[in-house]
């Protein structure tokens, strides 16, 4: 895929800061060719409630969903390290993601959330708020000194409970060639207990936080449509590429001078938890395979759809993964010089965007079929909404 000159966007992250430019130059050689990533954010316990009743207890935390997708779909030469903190009560140390990428152990209890899903029939709006979150426990923050002392091709800042401190994000920016950030790591505030147990999660304006000044050194900032007003898309897009996810409507990308809408994939939703996290990891996977940002967003949409199809951290069927990897092998691209490890990103869709969507839609259909195959145990009803689940044949 040879993007037209018009399709090649400005250098990312912007090199307006001379100190940063010099630092980047010095470090260029140290990054080398290795495609190692750094995922920063803690695993947590998720309790899913509906109508006052517990309907699920699962491993959670963006780091768990992200690791799951990166492990499944990164190109073979790519690897990553996870910096996460949990307490002695952590219940999922032997689950696949934490077993492969263990956490730092703290005396404080593991971060935990209660997610309350409405008992009303689900809203017809694709991106209406679907849950009320309360943070019940918060483990220790992740400090700059907790990060490994080496360079990474890319970093993912994926906190859920305020654990990625501003100084930790700053250190990530210094260590990583390109940093991708989930807005939920930056704009969550936790209101003291007003009854109901734990602290209600609300959002604050990004501009008023200490993270705002770091945005121009971030490559991509992802926000859900609920979070987008707090991010301030028009201001933020002048500093980095902003991605807004829109639930079952897919997503939009905004960069300085352009924007794109990227179509979704069908899914039978059983639990929306982890869609945004899996989206961000899918997007990173797309960049690792050498896709432009708008094409990589297809991988984001694909893994977002895969996440909502199962309760908790999804298990991907090997046949589905094989199909996705085959598509990426066939279509992608300049792996010897992947965008994520270079100085620039291409934002616009390539001329094979629609073809890539069609191929991935085939893999999404396979996922739906496998999900409803009685031989697999993934054919559950939607535990988090009173909406009658769309039948696989009509959704997929
Ligand atoms: N019901 C769905 N059907 C298909 N894809 C979905 C669905 N819900 C989410 N996704 C995918 O996951 C992405 C992230 O979901 P979204 O709900 O916007 O994020 P969050 O989990 O942060 O609220 C969407 O952009 C979309 O690609
Ligand atoms: O659903 P999503 O927005 O992608 O991400 C979720 C977080 O918002 C939530 O705090 C956490 O408990 C979940 O495990 C998951 O990480």
From TrEMBL:
GO function term, MF aspect, one: ATP binding
Biased composition (Low complexity): 1-14
Identification of the protein by name: Inositol 3-kinase
UniProt keyword ATP-binding present: yes
Reactions catalysed, as given in the entry: myo-inositol + ATP = 1D-myo-inositol 3-phosphate + ADP + H(+)
Enzyme class: transferase
Domain Carbohydrate kinase PfkB: start-end pairs: 242-315
GO biological process, one term: myo-inositol hexakisphosphate biosynthetic process
Natural source organism: Brachypodium distachyon
PROSITE patterns assigned to the protein according to its UniProt record, in alphabetical order: PFKB_KINASES_2
Membrane-spanning residues: none
Family in the record: Belongs to the carbohydrate kinase PfkB family.
Superkingdom as given in the UniProt entry: Eukaryota
Top-level taxonomy: Eukaryota, Viridiplantae, Streptophyta, Embryophyta, Tracheophyta
Region (Disordered): 1-28
PANTHER family to which the protein is assigned, alphabetical: HEXOKINASE FAMILY MEMBER, INOSITOL 3-KINASE
Gene3D superfamilies per record: 3.40.1190.20
Coiled-coil annotated residue ranges, if any: none
Keyword annotations of the record: ATP-binding, Kinase, Nucleotide-binding, Transferase
EC number per UniProt: 2.7.1.64
């Amino acid at each position: 895929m040879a993007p037209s000159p018009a399709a090649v966007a400005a250098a990312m992250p912007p090199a307006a800061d001379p100190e940063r430019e010099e630092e980047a130059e010095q470090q260029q050689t140290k990054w080398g060719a290795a495609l190692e990533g750094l995922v920063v954010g803690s695993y947590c316990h998720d309790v899913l409630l509906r109508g006052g009743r517990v309907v699920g207890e699962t491993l959670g935390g963006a780091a768990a969903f992200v690791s799951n997708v990166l492990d499944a779909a990164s190109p073979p030469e790519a690897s990553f390290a996870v910096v996460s903190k949990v307490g002695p009560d952590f219940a999922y140390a032997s689950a696949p993601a934490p077993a492969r990428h263990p956490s730092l152990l703290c005396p404080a209890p593991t971060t935990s959330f209660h997610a309350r899903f409405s008992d009303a029939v689900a809203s017809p709006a694709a991106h209406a708020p679907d849950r009320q979150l309360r943070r019940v426990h918060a483990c220790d923050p992740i400090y700059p000194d907790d990060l490994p002392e080496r360079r990474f091709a890319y970093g993912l800042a994926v906190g859920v409970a305020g654990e990625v401190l501003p100084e930790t994000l700053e250190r990530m920016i210094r260590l990583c060639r390109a940093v991708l950030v989930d807005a939920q790591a930056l704009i969550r505030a936790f209101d003291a207990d007003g009854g109901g147990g734990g602290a209600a999660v609300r959002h604050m304006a990004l501009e008023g936080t200490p993270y705002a000044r770091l945005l121009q050194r971030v490559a991509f900032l992802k926000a859900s449509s609920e979070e987008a007003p707090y991010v301030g898309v028009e201001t933020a897009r002048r500093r980095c590429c902003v991605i807004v996810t829109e639930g079952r409507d897919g997503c939009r990308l905004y960069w300085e001078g352009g924007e794109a809408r990227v179509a979704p994939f069908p899914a039978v939703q059983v639990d929306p938890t982890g869609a945004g996290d899996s989206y961000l990891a899918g997007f990173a996977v797309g960049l690792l395979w050498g896709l432009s940002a708008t094409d990589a967003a297809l991988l984001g949409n694909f893994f977002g759809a895969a996440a909502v199809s199962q309760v908790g951290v999804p298990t991907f069927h090997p046949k589905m993964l094989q199909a996705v990897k085959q598509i990426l092998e066939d279509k992608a691209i300049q792996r010897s010089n992947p965008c994520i490890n270079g100085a620039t990103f291409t934002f616009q869709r390539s001329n094979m965007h629609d073809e890539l969507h069609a191929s991935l839609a085939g893999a999404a259909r396979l996922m739906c079929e496998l999900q409803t195959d009685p031989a697999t145990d993934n054919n559950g009803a939607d535990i988090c909404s009173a909406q009658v689940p769309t039948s696989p044949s009509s959704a997929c």
